[in-house]
Design a protein that fits this description.
Layout: E1 15-17, E2 28-36, E3 41-42, E4 46-48, E5 53-62, E6 66-80, E7 87-101, E8 113-114, E9 119-121, H1 123-133, H2 172-181
Parallel strand pairs: 7-8
Antiparallel strand pairs: 1-9, 2-5, 3-4, 4-6, 5-6, 6-7
Length: about 190
């Protein structure tokens, strides 16, 4: 069964060939490479830019059931702080551990990752691991003060920012009446 996202024939850098391992349990292959990130590795406010480098440091081991992939993948993150809308940049290292079962395997788990011939596709695994580790509401820093609700000023760069006490427009008419009630009137006591 191939990936539902794209055919393995596209041979992106995230599709690895395990032919060298054969089906001999105990055979091992190290993969240390950098590939281009696919699209859609992220959420609206933060993610991995398409085409940015993904550093793979993996060990592929042939086991009885298939090929066990362990190691790390390191990706660049770009996004936007949800409080101040400032740019966020960083790196994320993902721990990878997945068993890719051989075609025709007796594995009962329908969700199991499967080899397509001698090829394995890391993209669905990478997508799941990256997206699950992303912050739902990314911040540029824990102390981010955000934006002023009245004028939109960045409170991080203007910590003393303040506005004069504004009057709620719903009270404007009463304020006008208050001016009338404070005037003193001479009342003729006749």
């Amino acid at each position: 069964m191939s990936s539902p996202h794209r055919p393995l024939g596209s041979r992106s850098g995230l599709v690895l060939d395990t032919h060298d391992l054969g089906r001999r349990a105990g055979a091992m292959k190290l993969v240390r490479t950098t590939v281009d990130a696919p699209a859609d590795l992220g959420i609206d406010v933060i993610g991995v830019p398409p085409g940015s480098p993904v550093r793979l440091d993996l060990r592929l081991e042939s086991v009885v059931e298939g090929v066990l992939v362990t190691g790390t993948a390191t990706v660049a993150l770009r996004g936007e702080c949800v409080r101040c809308l400032g740019a966020i940049a960083g790196e994320q290292q993902i721990e990878v551990q997945e068993l890719y079962v051989y075609p025709g395997s007796d594995a009962t788990d329908e969700e199991a990752s499967r080899l397509d011939g001698d090829l394995l596709d890391l993209q669905p695994l990478l997508r799941d691991d990256v997206v699950l580790d992303l912050p739902f509401q990314p911040l540029c820093g824990e102390e981010c003060r955000g934006l002023c609700a009245e004028c939109g000023a960045n409170l991080n760069s203007e910590p003393d920012h303040a506005h004069e006490g504004g009057v709620d427009p719903r009270w404007e008419k009463l304020r006008a009446l208050e001016g009338i009630s404070n005037k003193s009137y001479d009342v003729d006591s006749n």
